[in-house]
Amino acid sequence: MNAVPRLPEPDDDDSLLGALRRHGERHARHRAGDESALRRLAQVGVLGWMIVVPTLGGLFLGRWLDGRFQSGLFWTGGLLMVGLAIGCWSAWRWVKKA
């Protein structure tokens, strides 16, 4: 009778086995909710825009009001600070929610 030959056990330093283990670990982390670096980078970008857009809105509105009423930098300075405060507040709220 011919015996069925046994396959050798894979070595721990086998590159294919190591790649499969790493892939399985990444997949398990993903399913557990661990976020990738790219996703975190996107969140930082969103936070930046959440602060910049209201700040620039206040700046442009202030410049327009100052030009309309010839009031120097009165409206620009005040609305710039209000826009910055609104942007920081909305970013803080978004971070607390996420």
Please characterize this protein's 3D structure.
It is a single chain. The protein is mostly helical and 98 residues long. It has a domain at 39-97. The protein has helices at residues 15-32, 37-69, 74-97. The N and C termini lie far apart (66 Å).
Q: Can you tag this structure with a few keywords?
A:
98 residues, mainly alpha, 0% strand
Brief write-up:
The protein is mainly α and 98 residues long. The chain is built from 3 helices and no strands.
Topology:
Elements: H1 15-32, H2 37-69, H3 74-97
Helix pairs in contact: 2-3
The oligomeric state of the chains shown is: single chain
Biggest beta sheet summary: none
Shape: rod-shaped
Task: Classify the secondary structure makeup into a structural class.
Answer: mainly alpha
